[in-house]
Write a structure and sequence with these properties.
Chain lengths: 200, 200
DNA sequence: CACTAAAACGGAGGTGCCTCCGTTTATTTA
DNA sequence: TAAATAAACGGAGGCACCTCCGTTTTAGTG
């Protein structure tokens, strides 16, 4: 009711932000996402500020603690994953969309694993973080699966929670160097299983 | 069976330690305990090393992370508390011993509250830490209560878990400046309740 | 004792954290 | 458009972390 802004980009306060502030903030999140992915969540904040082309003071004004920044990056990741689900569904056959999305889901898991360590403390206070994001993710997965089943591309006797459960092994797998490859094979294997007996 | 040492002082490895190493280690723990109590668990490690009269390198050799040091200090605290129970029981009438011990228990709680924050991360991996120490503490309390009850100094229809429960309020009380005083009054009040109806 | 190997010491140095405040820039007002 | 004001910028500076390695000390051995 009282919203006055159309720019619904991620903003900490509902108050409108100055243009340069918004620009810098977006750039910081962008760079932080890349850097965390590449170097882990312990990456230097000064390095992130430098790569984003702003001073360290600016980074700290927007994100008072490292955890704040990590949380925003994580939420953005979830956002991207859910958005990708819609996009893939629009541009590919339902079963292909599902497979491509699951491949991307693997990356998300990797991120989540990395962040979980650094957010463990935060989670004790702000416990809604993981629960509501994982709700959104499984919602996205559900849409893809139902669409694929409705199109007869995969069997109809499974649901999102079954698939999520089948992917559970990714979570517990140790951080071996070939982790990613193995996860990719797991996804392919799972897709074969899903396709087998389609329209049956 | 294979123990070769009598010096059962807190030592990380069963291997005998060089005399100077042991000396420095003990001093560090001693100083760290004081400093953490005075300045909180975020106290500067370099400051602790300096006060202990050793180089920062020595501190890190003995305690690779801050958490290691905090944990050792905490265990020492528990040790002291349990030892105090025996000593007080030896030197005072049973009810006085119990009261004095509970006063000291208040300090222990304060320490534990402070450490809990910094150990929260550690606790997820090493979850035996709090469970086994609190087991020892409640054991000490039980001895004192049973002795006092057996001597007819306090009523016999309460046990350690009742008293622990009654002291629970200390835990949740906010960090007001008069926290300590109020806790002291709570202990006195509780003792009056325990004494009332003794030998009844 | 003198000698030696192994263990422990310690602090310089390189890096990151975070605050503080003088400077710059966007927005509002006249 | 120009001036005024509020907001944001940015980096110097001070402090703490932690590693690395040359120096010192201890505990055996002849």
């Amino acid at each position: 009711m009282s919203d006055q802004e159309m720019t619904t980009r991620e903003a900490p306060a509902p108050k409108a932000m100055r243009a340069d502030a918004q620009r810098n903030r977006d750039k910081l999140v962008e760079v932080a996402a890349q850097t965390f992915a590449a170097d882990g969540v312990d990456a230097s904040l000064e390095e992130i500020a430098k790569r984003a082309g702003v001073g360290i003071g600016t980074l700290y004004r927007h994100f008072p603690t490292r955890e704040h920044l990590v949380e925003v990056v994580y939420r953005r990741e979830v956002e991207g994953l859910c958005h990708a689900a819609e996009e893939l569904a629009r541009e590919h056959p339902a079963d292909v969309a599902l497979e491509l999305w699951m491949q991307r889901f693997v990356d998300y898991i990797a991120t989540k694993r990395g962040l979980a360590t650094s957010l463990r403390l935060l989670l004790t206070t702000n416990s809604t973080l993981f629960s509501d994001t994982s709700g959104r993710v499984s919602g996205a997965m559900r849409s893809l699966i139902e669409a694929a089943a409705a199109a007869g591309k995969i069997r109809a006797d499974v649901d999102a929670s079954d698939v999520m459960h089948a992917l559970g092994g990714i979570y517990s797998a140790p951080n071996t160097p070939d982790w990613r490859d193995r996860s990719g094979r797991l996804v392919k294997l799972l897709m074969d299983g899903l396709r087998f007996g389609a329209k049956g």
